[in-house]
Design goal:
6 helices; Tumour Suppressor Smad4; Rossmann fold; alpha+beta; 18% helix; six-stranded antiparallel sheet; elongated
Length: 284
């Protein structure tokens, strides 16, 4: 029997309702279902997820948009737990099923009728000035962003690639994204759309105050270091989640993650098909 966790968007009543209904459906079949504590009024007897339980999950189900999916993946990355995304959002690049197809999607997973997509992540270290010991560590699925604080006009960042100095930027923000994250903030900043099958790092300046404003697409073996310079600290965000300030002189180092994100797919929607659908692109 399978152990399946559910991570619905807590502020979407339809998502939490379907999660609760699906928990009961699975329990009737002898499976064990878990839900995050944020789910209100979970069915009586339903077990709650905690860090220990995550290690033994066979599947995590995310019910929401891409933000909910990122949160679910971040909870299990490195634990060899695949994540099935159910789209309740607007774009749903990372999701594989619609709400009315959830039961069928779970049945296909349990029958082994699915494809496991491995997506490169980004391991991130924050290093104090002059130190090689990180004061903070994170793993991103989409992107790492250093942005200007509200009181400053720009953020000043010196970029080094695999230990070699590249350029100093004055910009609203600097983005380091994975291929998966290329359709997020990177895309909004006119960065390239990259196939999620590629293992690479994309470095994109946001509104740079300089002539060179192009993105860089780097190999997965490269390491990107962003050193905050100037007089103002920078704000750090990992997958859109604020992580506090990075002080002048500190470095944010990004490299290919030690563990891939594991996404359940049914091989029925190519990346190009999803892209055309989400942006309502038609053939000409």
């Amino acid at each position: 029997m399978a152990r399946i966790g559910f991570a619905p968007h807590a502020e979407r009543p339809q998502a939490t309702d379907i999660a609760k209904e699906t928990v009961l459906w699975l329990e009737r079949q002898g499976h064990t279902a878990y839900v995050f504590p944020e789910v209100p009024s979970a069915p009586e007897g339903t077990q709650r997820l905690d860090g220990f339980d995550l290690d033994g999950l066979d599947l995590m189900v995310s019910l929401g948009g891409d933000g909910t999916m990122l949160r679910a993946v971040s909870m299990v990355v490195g634990r060899d737990v695949p994540v099935l995304g159910v789209n309740f959002g607007r774009f749903g690049y990372l999701t594989a099923a619609e709400p009315d197809g959830l039961h069928a999607a779970i049945e296909r997973f349990l029958a082994g009728d699915y494809v496991l997509e491995r997506r490169m992540t980004l391991d991130t270290l924050v290093l104090p000035e002059g130190s090689r010991v990180a004061r903070a560590r994170s793993t991103a699925i989409n992107d790492v962003v250093l942005s200007r604080p509200s009181s400053a006009h720009t953020v000043h960042v010196r970029v080094a690639i695999t230990g070699r100095q590249f350029l100093s930027y004055a910009a609203d923000a600097m983005i380091v994204s994975s291929a998966t994250g290329s359709t997020g903030y990177n895309f909004s900043a006119r960065g390239p759309i990259v196939s999620p099958k590629l293992r690479c790092l994309v470095v994109t300046p946001v509104s740079p105050h300089m002539l060179f404003d192009r993105s860089l697409v780097l190999d997965s073996t490269d390491e990107v270091a962003l050193r905050v310079e100037g007089r103002a600290d920078a704000e750090l965000a990992i997958d859109g989640d604020a992580r506090g300030k990075v002080a002048v002189g500190e470095r944010v180092v990004c490299r290919a993650g030690a563990h891939d994100a594991l996404l359940v797919s049914f091989g029925e929607r190519s990346f190009e098909t999803v892209l055309k659908s989400k942006f309502r692109l038609s053939d000409r």
